[in-house]
Specification:
12 strands; single chain
Amino acid sequence: MDATPKFSLLIVDDDSADLAVLNTILRSDYEIFTAKSGEGALKVLSEKLPDMILLDVLMPGIDGFELIKQLKEDSNTRKIPIIFITGLENDNDEAKGFALGAVDYIRKPFKAESVKARVRAHMESAAQARASERLGLIDPLTGIANRRSFDERSAMEWRRAIRDSSEISLLMIDIDKFKSYNDTYGHPQGDVLLKAVARVFEETARRPADLTARIGGEEFGILLPLTALESALNIAEDIRAGVEALRVPTADKKAVTSITVSIGAASTIPKNNDRIETFIARADKNLYTAKDGGRNRICHDG
């Protein structure tokens, strides 16, 4: 007998028929909780934290957009993957959902195999992220994923992208003139800066499937599964601008320091014979193009 507990899902939808359909599709694989309103969802979440939330966009009272904003502001629910349920076809609504932190959309009317595949893919990503934390695959200085975690997750997401013919993006990021910063303010202050910059990265690429990692020294990588180039570039610009606006005081409070970053972006839908090493090398090449071009910029090769 398999004693492994099932992952849990909270389904939030004001339509009883839709709740019933999703429950039928998913109940054999997951423990299901349901709520018929945003208010009801918050009540459920005050008592238990599911592994994933399926959230209807259009509901009376607290709608899906407002609810996800509340959940992403709460440290207890921030990392729960949220997939929107919608009958809408408006690209602006979809973009808004992704900007607020949704990991995917499931459209009505529901197709059972598509629903199962999307939920399974994001549940696997979330499970892998939690496993990385348990196994100590975390950079001790910044608290984000380390190189080993980056390599393992990248390989897993690459295989999934090949299997599902889905797009995957990567940002390679380097702190500009970091050696000069260390020489000016000292290595302890450099460590303070690294931690501050890492927070900007993690708070910007905040979907549970996204992975922010310290590759080594002042170089970082952000893996963005199920993400097209345009969306990746939007995230990259938010990061570039966020770091540029960052102000980090010295320990003695006598100076306030600042820094910039250069970013190389790459995106692809990989085929069976494609190698992830080649993909990472593309992003790296674009990073060095950004640095050679004057720093504090984003470069990509289309």
